[in-house]
Amino acid sequence: MNLTDSIQYLKGVGPKSFENYKKLGIFTVEDLLLYFPFRYEDIAGRNVVDLLDGEKATIVAEIVTPANLSYFGARRSRLTFKAKQDNSVFGVSFFNQPYLKDKLEVGSKVGLYGKWDSKKQQLLGLKVLSSVEGEHGVIATDADFQPIYHVMQGVKQSSLVRLIQTAFEGGALELLQENLPQELLRKYRLISRQQAVKAMHFPVDLNEHKQALRREKFEELFIFQLRLQALKDQEKSGREGLLVTYDKEKVVAKESELPFELTSAQKFALQEILADMISKTHMNRLLQGDVGSGKTVVAELSMYAAYTAGFQSALMVPTEILARQHFANLTLLFPELQVSLLVSAIKASERREILEDLATGHTNMVVGTHALIQDGVEFDNLGLVITDEQHRFGVNQRKILREKGQNPDVLMMTATPIPRTLAITAFGDMDVSVIDELPAGRKPITTRWVKHQQIDEVLKWVRTEILKEKAQIYVISPLIEESEALDLKNAQDLYEELSDYFKADARIGLLHGQMKADEKEERMAMFKAGKLDLLVSTTVIEVGVDVQNATIMIIMDADRFGLSQLHQLRGRVGRGQKKSYCILVANPKSESGKQRMQIMVDTTDGFKIAEEDLKMRGSGEVFGIRQSGIPEFTVADLVNDYNILEVAREEAIKIFADSDGNFENYLSSFNFSDSDFD
Ligand code: ADP
Ligand code: MG
């Protein structure tokens, strides 16, 4: 037998079941060995003396009398025998399973699943647990666990178990090569690969299973981290970066023109970015910073640096509203430069002109949406590519933009803080800069959670805030998942209700995704200019939007939103010197809904919120991770295994550094047999 053999040659696999196994991803003997159970059923069973009347349970017991089979009627039968567990002897009867008779031998230990009848002190047997070791579906094992695999129609648990057993019997396990260095096995007291794989399927006890899982998790994360190291290395050496020799004096001069001083975190991040740009290595950097920490200005100065070195730069953002906002900022900050805006909703003639200017190099900077990565968009000399709210983009979209230049430097910004565990994994191939402080003078946002019944009080308060404080307010309409039409209707209804309520006391505007581009722009501009007091909006303003004077964020049916979305929405206020508030209006029905509201009330720290989000939802759901290129792990789990992840990463970095880039060879050179070390 070879590990690469197709399983169709194993006993018990026919053409039809082969098709089904393939659907599970099991093609070869190796796939089969590495197809691990996702949980184990505890068949250690219960103590009969503890069972309550009517309770269903598994009991492992010894058969003490021969099974007696009696028929009544043509088809109906009853099988009875006595079994013993410790000092308790009890009766067992099975109805209509006459074939069990031959399998229940006196003296053997079996796992019996059934319903306990305490009056009669007897078990109404439902199932004899399927075999781990024996051939006929009767267990005769001391194992406390029965593995449970993900299966699908056409593949039965018991057949899969038997097939794995067949492979084991054929010696497949012995063919598996150790793939971790002995040194690491010793250092971290990891069991060998063969031991682990065996124990993953058929653990003898809880401890053995724990050891197997620990080893398999380490292996999975370690090998993943090694690949990331290789990727990072490729990025750095394989593709030489551009030398962006920017004019330091000009950049410093521009910085001093800003209406505020950069925070030290902003300065530091900018230094790191500029150092990457001027060096020959290719920049591949993530700029991480909580909402409102001031990433934009860092991006703008980096773009300016690229300009002073004679390069074009591009800033890609996920929404048109955000693109327009950045465009306005850039033109204000760099009146002497040629800045373009490229979004989908523009006239063909205008678009042609913009593309022409980009291709000839007339344009110095461009900001845009997905429109930037369409065919036909070409640059003269693109030196720097920045994506804002990068988690909103898929891996491919980011790549396309990068490929429009001669390997330009790349900066990705994320307002959504990513928990350390995920950052290590998702961006293990990137360098990371963090802006971990807010500009001076910001006041903490106060968050309140109110029930729908209290909305009147909230609106009364809003009225006085508008009249006395000239407050500006966002009201986010409830989110109806996957229905833009309903979102729109909700926003419109809410707009009308509020207009009715406030009458002449407030100037109210409406903003939603289906409005025409110029309408959206006009509405946003009015709000920003203070010509609207209250803006009813859908989540189109979720990310990036910056109106410093807005101080109240009201989120209707807040429990319909996820934590990271709520955090983003809340981040639309508290961006200036004024005290800000976030009001969550929600009557959550689910426990998790209540939890989310409470977390929002308890903290404004984006990192804490992200950690909670990760715990509640699992890594796959958070921050569009599915799109970010993180693989789905089979045994490891990013929420609970971050300790292992960090250790695995450290070791991977060391080993990779020692391996001259050829880690596969390097790894196998580690694997002498144990005796070579003595
Ligand atoms: P984000 O990191 O969420 O993208 P922005 O870049 O939009 O945050 O910045 C939020 C607000 O803070 C903007 O109005 C910006 O002009 C302002 N800002 C940025 N840096 C500073 C600073 N160092 N001091 C004062 N205000 C700043
Ligand atoms: Mg931003």
From TrEMBL:
Class in the EC hierarchy, top level: isomerase
Domain Helicase C-terminal: 454-615
Recorded superkingdom: Bacteria
Pfam families named among the record's database cross-references: DEAD, Helicase_C, RecG_dom3_C, RecG_wedge
One GO BP: DNA repair
Catalytic activity annotation: Couples ATP hydrolysis with the unwinding of duplex DNA by translocating in the 3'-5' direction; ATP + H2O = ADP + phosphate + H(+)
Keyword presence, Cytoplasm: no
UniProt xrefs under SUPFAM superfamilies: Nucleic acid-binding proteins, P-loop containing nucleoside triphosphate hydrolases
UniProt name for this protein: ATP-dependent DNA helicase RecG
Originating organism: Lactovum miscens
